[in-house]
Amino acid sequence: MDAALAHALEVSRSPGTRAGEAVGASTLCEALDIRKPPKMPSLKVVMAFIRGCGGSEELTRWTTAWRRIRMTRTTTSNVTQLLPTADQRRAG
Question: Which structural domain, as residue segments, surrounds residue 17?
Fold first, then answer.
């Protein structure tokens, strides 16, 4: 197991972790599994991992980046859904 992941798991399970912040080992492992199709992890998972890697002072930057990516993906997805499909364009 990678040292950063092991540390993130340890921190996420520690008694000092506030309620609602802890994530399970399987959740962190799934988020980092390169064999699975890429999927954006939840903000809770990202924050647990950043804390676990000792980056607590960077949480604001990571949270902002996560929200920007999520907003971009959501906006792109919504726009894509509004665009006509190739079949619809051909049917005109």
Answer: 3-83
